[in-house]
Amino acid sequence: MKFWSSRDAAREIGLSSRRIRALARAGRLKAHKVGNRWLVEPISAREVKAGRPPSSAVAWAILALLSGDRPGWIHSSPLSRLKRRLRDRDWALQSLKGSESRARIFRWRALPSDIAKILKKPGLVLTGLSGVAGEIDLVPASGEIDAYVSSDVLRMIERQFQPAKESDEPNLTLRVPNQPWILKFPRAPLAVVSADLLLDSEPRVTRAGREALRKLLSDQHP
Questions:
Q1: C-alpha to C-alpha distances, 147 to 18, 93, 176, 194, nearest whole angstrom
Q2: pLDDT tens across 134-159, in order?
Q3: pLDDT band at residue 49, thresholds of 50, 70 and 90?
Q4: Can you name the residues that pair with 176 across neighbouring β-strands?
Q5: How far apart are CA 203 and CA 209, in angstroms?
Q6: Are the CB atoms for 190 and 121 separated by under 8 Å?
Q7: What are phi and psi of 107, to 5 degrees?
Q8: What is the per-residue pLDDT across 59-106, written as a single tens digit (0 to 9) for each?
Q9: What is d(CA 135, CA 213) in angstroms, rounded to the nearest whole number?
Q10: What span, in angstroms and rounded, lies between the C-alpha atoms of 123 and 109?
Q11: Per-residue b/e over 121-142, b at no fewer than 16 CB within 10 Å?
Q12: Which residues on neighbouring strands pair with residue 107, listed in sequence order?
């Protein structure tokens, strides 16, 4: 049998090498130690992953693939498996809905007169109801902003506009992604907009996001 090193297991499963070693020491992986190295049985490692939610890296990779892009942060072997798994539309939808968070989300309230000014600032990647276009049967948000931003842009908006941090009626949703791929777009691709709608609290919005994602998956895998 060919064993994985802790680094190989970490790459294949989506955990850190430190976490793999901790699981091996705890007996949660079939592994044995040779000198200072842990050798892990591949099948057992995959079984550990089965009960975990998909990582944010996997979720972002799904969205990049659905947007016609190559997720460079995923190695070729796991990427090939991921492409095959996307043929299962239900799995893809559940992975996007149940994955680890793809961003740190800040829900603030800005002065209504400042919303238009914030929209003019560079570095906002509109998503959700702010990014809705003709492919989704929803009315784009008015008087609100939902956007991906870098940490620098977040701080700039916070400093310049001083939005209220605690509000029952936020009108400014800023998402700092843990994968910078999304920040290269002037507006979020349809797959990302749809995935963010999928996590909305309103059923009609969730339904629209799910339908848009199903169509994207069907177009890629008829």
A1: 34, 22, 9, 13
A2: 889 898 888 999 999 999 999 999 99
A3: low
A4: 104
A5: 10
A6: no
A7: -110, 105
A8: 999 999 999 999 999 988 889 989 999 999 998 998 898 888 899 999
A9: 11
A10: 19
A11: eeebbbbbbbbbeeebebeebe
A12: 173
